Amino acid sequence: MTTSSSGGAVLRAPRRRSAPATWAWWLLAAGAPLLFLGVFFAWPVVALVLQGFFADDGGGGRVLDLSGFGEVLSQPRTWRVVGQTLAQATVGTALSVLLGLPAAYVLYRCRFPGRTVARALVTVPFVLPTVVVGVAFRSVLAPSGPLGFLGWEESFAGIVLALVFFNYAVVVRTVGGLWERLDPRAEQAARSLGATPWQAFRTVTLPALGPAIASAASVVFLFCATAFGVVLVLGGMRYGTIETEIWVRTTQFLDLRAAAVLSILQLVVVTGALLVSARLRARRERALHLSSDLSAAHRFSWRSAADVVPAGVTAVVVAGLLVLPLAGLVARSFQGPDGSWGLDNYVALGTTGGRNALTVTVWGATATSLRTAALAATIAVVVGGLVALVVSRRPRSRGLRRAVGTLDAVFMLPLGVSAVTVGFGFLITLDRPLGFDVDLRTSGLLVPIAQAVVAIPLVVRTVLPVLRAIDPRLREVAATLGAPPGRVLRSVDAPLAARSLGLAIGFAFAVSLGEFGATSFLARPDAATLPVVIYRLIGLPGAENYGMALAASVVLATLTATVMMVAERLRGDAGGGEF
Questions:
Q1: pLDDT by residue (tens digit) across 509-567?
Q2: Cα separations (Å) of 242 from 130, 232, 262?
Q3: pTM for this model (two decimals)
Q4: Which domain holds residue 416?
Q5: Residue 507's domain is classified under what CATH number?
């Protein structure tokens, strides 16, 4: 199309990118992550599942054999482990929700000085490595610790407390995010009709929060049911779960068949729990009146029992459940093997422990962890960023919309499959991946790849809300003016998503830094990461080794918290991010 101006010049409309080129670009953006997920997640997990259904026929082939299920399921130990898994997950989820609701109200419905700092403090436990959490509670609950009089060392109660510590922020952030925007006029109307604050909350506010509570509870149950480091450190063999039992059967008994059957059983338990949660959440979902303001919070009042009581509960929980274990860990890390106070444990981090207990020093393991986490975060951000970019689009075709929704759900699957299962699957599949003559199990790439698989869902959930909030008309205008997809991405999406991408990098780096489940299977002794070294030190006799474990845990916690603080600062006031 051409038009003539008054000066006789001919103006040509910008030439739009050809449809085949655009489709090729989007297919590449979706295909590359799918290939990565297929090779490094779906294939190992499926191969692991098949281990439970097939056995060697003696001639190099495989035959269908379900005897492994009968053997594993007939053992009382199996059902004891399943019962402990469900019990710990159920009680941990219930306590996380009950204790998290008051904090969600105080931190998101009330305004007071220092609220931002309080929110950050509550969020810190969620990003701490599970091994650190286990060591922190073990130091507090030990007979010589401040809570030793409770007798909860290596107990069901101690494990549950640690699970609540780890998942408390999930409930606070998920429920608080909705509560902050909930229109207060419905509750005010109930109060004006004579309802007490409790009655108004129970009949008006609580039903409105139902979907958020159900969503948070499902995520917490998932994390509790697949917890590994916390249970392994605090429970040992006595209070093991399906997750730790898979690790024991593989690393100690070399019973891969039984471990595969247990992995299948875990998948069934987790899938069933998620389906029940989704159904309950769907029943409670309804249209809500949300405040048009950024926040419907009110100023905190010391004269209102509705504010003071939740604030008191929150203060007790934060001080006793969150601050005390971390403070106890830091304090005991300065207590030397002879009971004196000083830096002996930190000085010993440059050694291999008592009687050369380790292959590498703690500082060497720290350097390995940082390098591995940097590579894992890079992979996770690239793959997760591409997924978020594709899923954030709103195609007009119903079929394409379903495909986008399916892609979003597929890349959340790593949250529903334990890292132990992923690591175990790597061991049995990646000796010759796709027929290439290379054994990835002996390479240094397998650990960061496994950590990236675990971190990708968090990257997607952090970046996706920001990309979805971008007005699609901005992209349409840029494309109409002739910008190719890559130029649209650089000029429209990238500037707006930059801060959330910084937070995603922080999440990916922190999660990779503390990942223990898959890494415990895959890390070589000479390239052990910091969580693996900490667990080895805990399992060794001697006060010197235990003191080093405490000091190393403080180092790991400090690194993780620093990474998240930098990421939050880079994000600034930008929105985005969801659990």
A1: 888 888 888 888 788 877 888 988 888 888 787 788 888 888 998 998 888 888 877 77
A2: 17, 11, 7
A3: 0.75
A4: 19-47+342-579
A5: 1.10.3720.10
